[in-house]
Design a protein that fits this description.
Helices cover about 70% and strands about 0% of the residues. It is mostly helical.
Length: about 160
Amino acid sequence: MEKHKIQGEIMKLIHSGETNFANCEKLVLLEKTLKCLEKYEEKRKEYEHHKHSEHHHEDLTKEQIMCWVADMENADGTHGGHWPMEQTEQVRKQKKIDCDPLMFFAAMNMMYSDYCKAVENANASSVDIFVYMAKAFLDNKDAMPHKLERYYRYIAEK
């Protein structure tokens, strides 16, 4: 139902002057619906503003990435990055993966942190799996740009 129609129905009920239970119940429901619709419109506008804002995206700094990785709570019960930057850089070069080394370091450790138990349960535990999962995450063509930054800001950042 459109906002102006809900407001119109509320005004009709108020001006009718009838205070029977059915009218009161209808009035309460219409007011709740109106509040919900207003909240939805506010959230939609906020989302649209962020979506089109030049300030929507900010690159992660090396310090943010290093702190994020150091603070990871891994699915296997360990804490912190599973691989140091030197090791993720070595494997990135070996596999000829063309991306920002810092982003790859974060993505590979994030994949381990989130999915190490699932990979282990599938008896597929291998560095290669995490390498290719990190690459797929960073190269996802269906995602909006700066996926890792958005993941950090909206999911991982505490």
